[in-house]
Amino acid sequence: MTKEKFLTLREAAKYLRVSERSLYRYISNGRLKATKVGYWRISESDLEAFIREGMNVKKKNK
């Protein structure tokens, strides 16, 4: 049995190149699944599903 890896909001935001505030918005409107255990956590599989479904977000310019 393999354990699911969870990312913090900061890690997920960095991976997606969006702000943490954007992730809060996606979670609150139901576009992105997340679990709150003290802090919000997003499973890698839910993050990959979010990307596959076409997250339609603007990338931050760096």
TrEMBL record:
<dbReference type="GO" id="GO:0003677">
    <property type="term" value="F:DNA binding"/>
</dbReference>
<feature type="domain" description="Helix-turn-helix">
    <location>
        <begin position="6"/>
        <end position="54"/>
    </location>
</feature>
<dbReference type="InterPro" id="IPR009061">
    <property type="entry name" value="DNA-bd_dom_put_sf"/>
</dbReference>
<dbReference type="InterPro" id="IPR041657">
    <property type="entry name" value="HTH_17"/>
</dbReference>
<protein>
    <recommendedName>
        <fullName>Helix-turn-helix domain-containing protein</fullName>
    </recommendedName>
</protein>
<dbReference type="Pfam" id="PF12728">
    <property type="entry name" value="HTH_17"/>
</dbReference>
<dbReference type="InterPro" id="IPR010093">
    <property type="entry name" value="SinI_DNA-bd"/>
</dbReference>
